[in-house]
Amino acid sequence: MSITAQSVVKRAASILKDKTGVRWPADELVEWLIDFERELAVFRPDAYAVVESVALVAGFQQSLPATCARLIDIPSNGSGTRLPISKVERAELDASAPGWRAMTASAVIKHFMHDTRTPLKFEVYPPAVATTPVDVEFSKYPTPLTVPAPGSDYSSVTGNLTAPDLYANAAVDYVLYRAFSKDSELTVNADRAARAYKAFALAAGIKMPRERADATKAE
Question: Any idea where the domains of the chain sit in the sequence?
Answer without folding.
Answer: 2-46+143-218, 48-140
